[in-house]
Structures are given as C-alpha cells and as structure tokens.
Amino acid sequence: MTTEPTDRPLVTVLGATGFVGSAVLAALAGRDLRLRAVARRPAVGPAGARAEVEVVTADLTDRAALAAAVKDADVVIHTLLCEGGWRAAAEPDGERVNVGVMRDLLDVAANPDRPPLVIYAGAASQVGAPPREPLDGTEPDRPGTVYDEQKLTAERLLLAASEAGLVRGVGLRLPTVFGEGTVPGTADRGVVAAMARRALDGQEITLWHDGTVRRDLVHIADIAAAFVAAVDHPAELAGRAWLLGAGRGDALGDVFRTVARLAAARTGGTAVPVVSVQPPAHAPRTDFLSVTIDSTPFRTATGWLPRVPLDEGLSRTVTALSHHR
C-alpha cells in the first residue's frame, strides 16, 4: 500500500471564486502540490488537476474561519475583494474585507520560526494620479479613492509584517486586467468586458473622454502566471511591492473599436459606434489620466513576461462573453 507524500507544499488561495483567484487556482493546479481553494461560495476544482485540491467554503471576515483556512499553509495568495469591487469600498463591509481580512490574516498566519509566503493582489492605482509615464514603482503613493486607500493600507500591513519576520510578504500591484473567466460563473467585471457586453447587446460603447486615454492592459492568463512566478521566487520578491504591466499603454478608443468589430463578427451585425459621453459626477480624476507601467524589476527578478497579445486577448474575451450570452 502506498501513501500520499506529505511534504508537498500547501498553497491556500483566498478568494478562489473571483476573477483573479480562480485563474491563479487554475494556473497552480497543474503542479505537484496541495491547493486549498477558499471562498464564500464553493470553488470549482480545476479539471484534470495534478495538484490535490481541497475546497473550503468560508466567510473570511470570520477570524476563526480565516485561521482554519490558512492553517499549515506554506503559501497564502490573497485575492479577496469586497463584493462589488472598487465601487463597494465605501460601503460598511468595504474596509472590513479590504483591510480587516489582511489584518486578521497576519495575526493568525504569523510564524517567525517558519514564516509563510503571503502574496497580495494589490492595484497599480494605489499610486493615485500617475505623476509620469511609465510608472516604475518608485513614485510616492497618493491614493485618490477609498478603494485605493484600503488597498494601500492592506499592502503596508503586509510589508510591515514581512519586515518584522512574521511572514514573507509580496505585493503584486495589478494593472487593468481583462479576459475570459476561468471557470463557469466567474466573469471579468472590468471595463473591457463591460464594453464587450454592451457591444454584443447592440448598444453603443461609451467613453468619458476622447478615447486617447491609455491603459496598461494585461490578460488574465498573464496575471495568473505572475502569481505563479511569485510563488517560485520568494527570496527575490519578499519584502516589497511590485508593479505588473505590459508596458504598452493602449488607447481605449482603439481598444473599444476593436471590441466593437469583434462583437459584430460574433453576432453577424454591424459594429456598434464608440462615442464620447458626459462623465458622471462621481468619476474619479484617475479615469481621465493615462497609465503605462514599466514592470522591468519584476520581470528581471522572475523572468515573467506577458505573452497574450492584445488582439488575441480581446478576441478571447469577446468570444467567451458571446458564448455566455
């Protein structure tokens, strides 16, 4: 009789049913390790996984449930986000999820004798209004929204605990992520997918500016690969935050016109127009500023590179959304 090896590392993914978390889970599933997928609703274990996958359903704002979820974990990947995303940051649960869970996590996972690797999904927007292009991570942080303030607070808590030797903390500041959901029921809620849905429904695509504003767009498969790279390079990465990006700075007007053409090809109709509209009063200033990211430090440390071309990523996104509809 053979027994399963017990020395395989245990990786816990918090927020495993989210857009980013489910992609990270799938990317790690092909490895010989133990995976614990934790979320408020049951996660879907990746098909054909080489990893041993344990699914845990838990409310991670419950400190005891969180402690059980990360018990004995060698690596904790924190992709948890308040329901409703950045728009819900100012709601009562926003700070409890976006900051409180990190604070509790560092308390229950701290182990100075064998500090676990904790990888946190932050946001490039934590810097606030971009002082220059491209961003390279040396800029001072001046967050301009409640969401970015909360993300920055959580990241600082992590890095302080890392400095104290309680964990090995790595912050990954994500750019504008887009793409197809990894498992059924998991979909991109970002601006690219939102406009793709409009185009597939025959509705015009709207911009709050003239379309020349740029975003650093990275496909979800490349973001998941960055988390895997972080798991593989703790010594090089621990103790600081790292910017992820493609370094292109894609003009949103051009991106959305491509989305409109791809949607028309799927529906057999005419490409919907891309039009400028009056922005709402609540629109943050950063929505009107261009962002390009220089991720050379992370690439140099890990060998990571975004590999999905923009046109391919947009095509995959529109195709997946058309199937859902």
TrEMBL record:
Residues of the NAD-dependent epimerase/dehydratase domain: 11-245
InterPro entries referenced in this protein's UniProt entry, alphabetically: Epimerase_deHydtase (IPR001509), Lipid_A_modif_metabolic_enz (IPR050177), NAD(P)-bd_dom_sf (IPR036291)
Listed name of the protein: NAD-dependent epimerase/dehydratase family protein
